[in-house]
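USER: Write out one fold?

ASSISTANT:
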Amino acid sequence: MKSLDKILAAFPRARLAHTPTPLQQLPRLSADFGRALYVKRDDCTGLAMGGNKARQLEFYLGEAVARGADCVLSTGAVQSNALRTLAAGAAKLGLECHVQLESRVDNPSDDYLRSGNVLLDRLFGAHAHRFAVGEDEERADHALAARAEALRAAGKQPFIIPLGAEHTPTGALGYVAAAAELAAQIAQQDARIDLIAVGSGSGLTHAGLLTGLALLEVRIPVLGVCVRRGAELQRRRVLARCRHLAELLGVAAVHEAAVRVDDSAFAPGYGRASKQTLSDLRLLATREGLLTDPAYSAKTFSAVFNLIRAGRLDQRRIAVIHTGGTPALFGYRRELTGATDRDST
């Protein structure tokens, strides 16, 4: 079989991320939980305050540039990390950027609507478009296609990064590559990791990691922590992503049994965090100086902690992929401090 480098070399790539990102042990929390806990710091990928999306966008924007695009469009939640990173990547490559902000969170605060990633979208020069529907991928992609058509009529060459799971999972290539990086670090540190946990939303990071590890014949199980939908729906989505990715790469698909998910930290829903998740977010900050966001990485850690607390996790050496999202913290001031929109501090 070809090496991963040779497989990935067939796809255009725009180098945007600062890699490799560190694999670090969390010594104080390891002592607290009686496990060896590690974090893969993909919050340190550099572009636009980091996050997993920088790895994915290397392949999406690589394709956009290869096709001669002069503008890019995508859709996501108001506090989308993907859109914030896209806006930065587009600015770096000289591309016009349009971001469609979907209303996925009920009763959002002023901070959620204006600060965090939304502020950064603006700073990077993105054109922001509000989309009232929040949980309909087909309608969101249809609206994106209509906007692209209008840009095309105005003489532009748009490139769409769609949301729906039926589209080619180009972004997952970033985590096929990341699997090799992580496997090398585990070996170099003799970390002997026996479980990897990762937030699972669009499914691209999860599917790419599973596929990359399988191609490397690294037999470390991966637990996908649900952040967008319940376990059964997410499992089916990731399995479909893995199969589509295998077709794209011309390799065998990941075995169905390898797709493991947990939704114990998903409630109360996408973009919202339970009291336990917010407590674990504070725990990570006060015990390890590690910032995580309520929508993704805090939920991933919280799910792992919940399973340990419940005695449901046999593995002793666990690595959590920190997928970034730190700028979104500023959109959750109300939830994190109990403040109201009228408060000035």
User: Anything to note?
Assistant: The first helix runs from residue 4 to 8. The mean pLDDT is 95.
